Amino acid sequence: MGYDINNKTVFITGANRGIGKAIAEEFIKQGVAKVYAAVRNVESVAPLVALYGDKVAPIKVDVADEETIIEAANAAQDVDVVINNAGVLSMSSVFDEGAMEALAFELDINLFGLMRVARAFAPVLKANGGGAFVQLNSVGSLKTVPNIATYCTSKAACYAITQALREALVAQGTHVVSVHAGPINTEMLNDTGYGEIAEPPSLVANGIIEALKKGEFHVFPDSLARQVGSVYEGFAENVIMASVTED
């Protein structure tokens, strides 16, 4: 069953740059009523406000700080769609000095941040009829790249939680989407060595919109991601999307 974003209110973490900003802009172009731009520094959203006026509502959120997320959920009681985009990437392999610290940092922001946002906003979505919850994962959640091994580990954990959210939130009518992007042209990608094949963040935004319309769980928005998705499709359909029941 599809979900129409027209005239809906959307909450986006990390909406001031990169993929988050592209999502905010495309969602506004596609007819959403309002975007809560959830960022650590609300002044960083000024360019979006200048372009779209009162359709953009800056709101202070640090996904590492549960109290700010709870405060945001209390303030944004009209939210229909939550997009958890905020994340971090460390250039760290398993044997690099500081790998443990890098992984701890990425788990705190990427994984625990996801859980904090989901736990705070699930009741809001339920109260507003279900809506949708979108998590920005990565092809790195399915295939580990050695020089960003800790990042891929954190995203694999995020994908596991996203699957759990899909099962847990279906009863309240919340559609969950897991986005598995490949190299996307953002500041985060600069040091990874994949800049030459990076594609625009608008692909991610449009992929999410299409997945919501079609009621799909997985999104593979760019060229590399689609290659992975085409191979993964059978497993996803028969294992990931299958319900697990206990006797």
TrEMBL record:
UniProt entry keywords in alphabetical sequence: Oxidoreductase
Pfam families to which the protein is assigned, alphabetical: adh_short
GO molecular function: oxidoreductase activity
Source organism, top-level taxon: Bacteria
NCBIfam families: PRK08264.1-6 (NF006120)
PANTHER family assigned to the protein according to its UniProt record, in alphabetical order: 5-KETO-D-GLUCONATE 5-REDUCTASE, ALCOHOL DEHYDROGENASE, PUTATIVE (AFU_ORTHOLOGUE AFUA_3G03445)-RELATED
Family, per entry: Belongs to the short-chain dehydrogenases/reductases (SDR) family.
Designated name of the protein: Oxidoreductase, short-chain dehydrogenase/reductase family
Organism in which the protein naturally occurs: Syntrophotalea carbinolica (strain DSM 2380 / NBRC 103641 / GraBd1) (Pelobacter carbinolicus)
Classification of source organism: Bacteria, Pseudomonadati, Thermodesulfobacteriota, Desulfuromonadia, Desulfuromonadales
